[in-house]
Amino acid sequence: MAKKITILGGGESGVGAAVLAKEKGYKVFVSDSKAIPAAFKTEMDNLSIPFEENGHSLDRILDSKEVIKSPGIPDKAPVVQAIRQQGIPVIGEMEFAFRYMGKSKLVAVTGSNGKSTATSLIYHICHTAGLDCALVGNIGFSFARQVAVDPKAYYIAEISSFQLDDCKDFRPHIAILLNITEDHLDRYNYIFDNYIASKFSITKNQTADDYFIYCDDDPVTVLNLDKYPFFSKPISFSMKKTERQGAYIKDEEMLLKVKQEEVRMNINDFALKGKHNQYNTMAAGIAASLLEIRSSKIREAITSFQGLEHRMEFVATIKGVEYINDSKATNINSTWYALEEMNKPVVLILGGVDKGNDYSLIEELVQEKVKAIICLGADNTKLHEAFDKTGKSIVDAGSMEEAVKAAYRLSEKGDVVLLSPACASFDLFLNYEDRGKQFKSAVIEL
Questions:
Q1: Fold category of 313-444 in CATH
Q2: For residue 127, how many C-alpha atoms fall within 13 Å in the half-sphere facing its CB?
Q3: Which residues 6+ apart lie within 8 Å of 172 measured at CB?
Q4: SS3 at position 403
Q5: d(CA 28, CA 22)
Q6: Where are the domains of the chain?
Q7: Which of 110, 134, 195, 402 meets the CB 3.0–4.6 Å disulfide criterion with 397?
Q8: DSSP readout, 256-304?
Q9: pLDDT tens, 4-27?
Q10: Whole-number Cα distances in Å, 94 to 19, 115, 120
Q11: Going by DSSP bridges, is the β-strand pair 370-376/346-350 parallel, antiparallel, or unpaired?
C-alpha cells in the first residue's frame, strides 16, 4: 500500500514536492489555508493529485505518514503544532528533493544578503561552462519539481533559513554562507543566536569530502565558526586578508586560488558592481573552481553576467532623475548596501512589514546620502520614530503609485529615486516581485 504524504502549501514549492511525490509512488494530498493559484490547480488535476484550499482538513492531514511543509508556514501555525503532537515527521521540500536527487552534485547558497545574486552567478558560470545544471530552491524552479521533471547532474540552490529549518539529511557538496545579519527575527523568537544556528545548519551533514565556503570578513560568521563544528573543508574569501586557499581582493584585483588553479581578474571587469557584489563574485568563483570549471570560462561568465530583476535594477531616467528598483531589499542590511553604493542625492522609498529592523544601522547613510524619505506601508509608525528626527522631508504613501508620484515631486535633476524597502512586502503587495513590478509600472507611467 502506498505511503500517504501530505503537503502543506500549494505554491511552487508545495506543488513541486507533490509532483515528485506522485512520481515516486506516494499517495499525495495537498492542503493550503489560502487560495491556490489556478495554474497549480490545473497541474494537480492533470496529475490526479487531490488538494484542498482555503482551509485544512486535520483528519485527512493527520492520517499521513509524513508531511512536507512549505517554508513560509511557521512552526507555531496550529496545523503544524497538531501534526507534531501526533509525532508525524515534518520535512521541507528541499529535504524531500535531496532524498531523490541521486548522484548529482549540489551547491547550496545561504546568507542574509546576496544569496539570489550569488546563486544566479554560480549557475551562470556553470551554464557558460556547459555543465548539465539547474537553478533551484528559493529562486527559479522548486528543487523537487526539477528532480521530478528534468533531473540534472548539478543543482545550484538558493536556500533560506526557513528551508534549512526543515532539513534533516540535506547535504550539499559545496555549502556557501555569504554573511549573517539580523533578519527574520520574528520567526526566531527575536533571538539572534537562533537565526545564526539556522544558517550554520547548512554544514551539519557535510563530510570531509565536501566544502564549506564562508566570508572571512563577516564578523558574525567568524565569531561562530567554533560554536558550530563542521567536518567539511573550509575555504574563505576576503578583502582584508590574503587567503592561502580561496579568494581575496587587493589593489582592485581578485585572486582566486583553489587547489592548484589560479584566476586573476581586475574588479573593474566584473559585470556586477558594488562592494557587496565583489564578495558575491568571490564566493561564486571559488564554487566554480571547486567544480573544476576552467579559469577562462569563469572569467567569461563573471564579465557577461546580467543582474537580477528587483535587485539594484535600473528602471529609467526621467527628467535627469534615475529610478532604481531594489524591491528585493527586504531587510535593513540590504538597504544599507544599496545606500552605500549611491553617489547621487537619494529619494528613498522605505517600508512594509517590519521584521524587527534596527533603523539606526542606516542612520549615518541616510544623513549623508538621503534628501527625502517616502514611507510606503500600512503602518509607518516605526519609520517615523526612526527618521523624523533627521530633519529630512518625510512623506507617507499608501500605494506604489502614490509613492512614485511623491518621489517625482521631491526629486530634481541629478537625483536618484531608490526603492529599497528594508521590509517584507505583504502588507500592500503579494510579494517583493509584485512590489518591484508595480514600482516599474508607476515609473514608466510618469
A1: Protein-Tyrosine Phosphatase; Chain A (3.90.190)
A2: 14
A3: 106, 107, 108, 157, 202, 206, 210
A4: helix
A5: 6
A6: 4-88, 95-304, 313-444
A7: 402
A8: EEETTEEEEEEGGG-SS-SHHHHHHHHHHHHHHHHTT--HHHHHHHHHH
A9: 999 999 988 999 999 999 999 999
A10: 13, 16, 18
A11: parallel
Closest CA to 371 of 332, 403, 344, 340: 344
Cα–Cα distances in angstroms (integers) from residue 147 to residues 17, 94, 102, 173, in the given order: 10, 11, 9, 17
- The pairing of strands 174-177 and 105-110 is parallel
**Per-residue pLDDT tens listing for the chain (446 residues):** 679 999 999 988 999 999 999 999 999 999 999 999 888 999 999 999 999 999 999 999 999 999 999 988 988 999 999 999 999 999 999 999 999 999 999 999 999 988 989 999 999 999 999 999 999 998 778 999 999 999 999 999 999 999 999 999 999 999 999 999 887 778 888 899 999 999 999 999 999 999 999 999 999 999 999 999 999 999 999 999 988 899 999 999 999 999 888 899 999 999 888 888 899 999 999 999 999 999 999 999 999 998 778 888 889 999 999 999 999 898 888 898 889 888 899 999 999 988 778 899 899 999 999 999 999 988 899 999 999 999 999 999 999 999 999 999 999 999 999 999 999 888 889 899 999 999 999 999 99
Q: In whole angstroms, what is the distance from residue 64 CA to residue 103 CA?
A: 29
Length, in residues, of the chain: 446
Give the CA angle between residues 124, 125, 129 to the nearest 5°: 115
Owner of C-alpha cell 501530505: 6
CA–CA separation, 254 and 264 (whole Å): 6
The residue assigned the cell 526603492 is 419
Domain 4-88 has CATH 3.30.950.10: no
Query: Domain 95-304 adopts which CATH fold?
Result: UDP-N-acetylmuramoyl-L-alanine:D-glutamate ligase (3.40.1190)
Whether residue 330 contacts residue 424, with contact meaning beta carbons closer than 8 Å, is answered with yes
Separation between Cα atoms, residue 106 and residue 108, nearest integer Å: 6
**Residue ranges of the alpha helices (H) in 49-104?**
58-61, 78-85, 93-99
Q: HSE-up of 151 (CA within 13 Å, CB side)? A: 14
Instruction: Tally Cβ neighbours within 10 Å of residue 48.
Output: 8
